[in-house]
Amino acid sequence: AQSVAQPEDQVNVAEGNPLTVKCTYSVSGNPYLFWYVQYPNRGLQFLLKYITGDNLVKGSYGFEAEFNKSQTSFHLKKPSALVSDSALYFCAGGDTGGFKTIFGAGTRLFVKA
Amino acid sequence: DAGVTQSPTHLIKTRGQQVTLRCSPKSGHDTVSWYQQALGQGPQFIFQYYEEEERQRGNFPDRFSGHQFPNYSSELNVNALLLGDSALYLCASSFSPGTGNTIYFGEGSWLTVV
Fold this sequence. Notes:
The complex is a heterodimer of chains A (113) and B (114). Chain A is mostly beta strands. Chain A contains no helices and 12 strands. By secondary structure, chain B is an all-beta fold. Chain B starts with a strand and ends with a strand. The radius of gyration of chain B is 13 Å and the shape is globular. Chain B is 0% helix and 50% strand. Chain B contains no helices and 11 strands. The A-B interface holds A 32, 34, 36, 42-46, 49, 51, 90, 93-106 and B 4, 33, 35, 41-45, 48, 55-56, 58, 90, 92, 97-100, 102-108.
């Protein structure tokens, strides 16, 4: 069965420092992988996705994610964090040819000024 | 360009009652998925509709049912409500079915069962 895991419930980083939010996946075949962000009492906003090709995917708001097939990881990164980046981040993925996109439990990011 | 819209935004129901939540997909999208997000958890897949048919279903009981209309809008129905059904219900739409297509979410419907 496919699964997506986010090993950290919370990540704390100082403004201006680089941030990383971790994600690992277990899907059959070639994975489709996504990152979404959720602000309080709001729906999820799409940040970026990996289908195939370059292992470094660039997305919205300066975020990027690195796909690593050997480690089955898809970590979200940003070179310089902003206080406004504080939110709940979800990794998601699915099998090639499937219809169900599944989500991790989420990682809360706190960026301190 | 209208995004995914959901109604109502908030509602309170009593145990045993039935609820209907509504969703209009993003312009140009024909596929609708429903998710349940309990407090402090990630979204859990309920089911997906395409061409007015349920294409795939998650691990939810038959009390959860849905419908898709010819204009691609969709409804989620939950019967015999339980306290544990209290959650944010998210509708997401995509250009077509398949996990390679990005799904875009609405703001959700907050359901409280008392």
